[in-house]
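Hi L.,

You mentioned the student needs an example of a multi-chain input paired with its predicted structure. This one should do, with 519 residues in total across all chains.
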Amino acid sequence: MGAGHSHPLHLPGASPVHRLPAEVKIVAAFLGVLCVVATPREAFPVFGGYLLLLAAVWAVARIPPGWILRRSVIEAPFVVLAVLLPVTGGAPYVELDWLGLTLSEPGLLGAWNILVKGTLGVLTSLTLAATTPLRDLLLGLQRLHAPAIVVTIATLMLRYVDVIAAEARRMRLARISRGHDPRFLWQAGATAKGVGSLFVRSYERGERVHLAMLSRGFTGRMPRLSDAVTTRRHWLTGLSPVAVAAALAVTGWVIT
Amino acid sequence: MSAAPEPVPVPVSGAGPAAPPPSLDVRGLAFAYPDGHQALYGIDLRIERGERVALLGPNGAGKTTLVLHLNGILTPGHGTVVVGGLPVAGRHLREIRRRVGIVFQDPDDQLFLPTVAEDVAFGPANFGVAGEALQARVHAALAAVGMAEHGDRSPLHLSGGQRRRVALATVLACEPEILVLDEPSSNLDPVARRELAEVLLGLDTTMLMVTHDLPYALQLCPRSVVLDDGVVVADGPTRELLSDPELLGRHRLELPYGFSLSP
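Structure written out for the whole complex:
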């Protein structure tokens, strides 16, 4: 998160990729993923090209590939789904002699499609997250004219999630100090009631925060607090990998 | 010192025709909550420019209710509130909220943005300050509370005392006519408490400080007003009020153990 916060998906740095304005990176990542999704699944070498392109971005941003790969495990549940497809899919089938398995051919292609596009999408998102603090992502969304209310809610969430987590921790400590042991099923009720009172407390805090915001002249619209300007140069730099990705997508259509 | 059960109007001293309007002029303010609970019964309070006044009183006396009237968050049932010559009313609510800077008790309620500098910029930006002027305001306000180095940090990673001072800066950045502090010394360790006092003493803004911390009131505010059951029951020099144990006792106020004051 912005200054001082550490969040596990961000790798602080000062590379050219880190320094690009957030909105440029958001647009570039979005368009890049669109190119990947638009590529025909049989265009196998093109996907290798995308991976090389991402690797180039990592090199410029000085992100160790291992760092990214460790974080890409969030994709795991989708991989499980992809693995099921060849087993459950329809005809025609292919025999795997060395395993004695009969697998569905459209299922295999479907699995490959999910796996490769999903992985490239996850890697792109991770690259965006690694080079952009959360705070800047929100500013970027604001500059891209995302609905103001959504950006405001996300901003407040970013600030208060830790405050509320700390409150929950204190409440839990206070319960434990009075002999509460949530491992016993019959004591789970206390935890549930704790969640309820945490909700009420958070709600009340919301009211107090709103009051404090009104007192400083809040009228329902967040003022723009930064006047950093995004130049054409930023856009050109940021979108150059997208141009390569678009060329790859076109190649994909041509070779299949 | 006066200790009458009725509201006591403050004598106006030396207010010639050319004198600036008082920072705060509350007259006959009465208010009942929608559930029928009457919180204020005709408050009169006048604070001249540059004065530092402590607002004392037990829990439930109506202190917070009074504070929320000062910038128009609550609308009086009866009476008027005038800030620096401008009545608190719908039309100029924006200007009123700029003029009345409320520092709330819990800095976590006040500091809601991810970085200190953004939070300090929030107020002035709402009031139309932008660009370099905004940066200058932010810097000046943070410097005034000794936090200039911490603009890029998250409020979450500051100590309690630092958070309190940043909360103060968010309000100072609006350049208020009157600064209203709600329990400024609560939850502060002795050093942070003293540091905050030094910052406050260094400001020349008019100040209304709501507090239970009587020694703090004595240190910071030459004048005190005691509010109980929705009326002003005493108004005078802080030392005189605090050295009257009978008055304090009547209104559930008392000096900490071991303290005593001679008038």
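You could point out the following to them. The beta strands of chain B are 24-32, 38-47, 52-56, 78-83, 86-87, 100-103, 178-182, 206-210, 223-228, 231-237. The radius of gyration of chain B is 18 Å.

Best wishes,
N.
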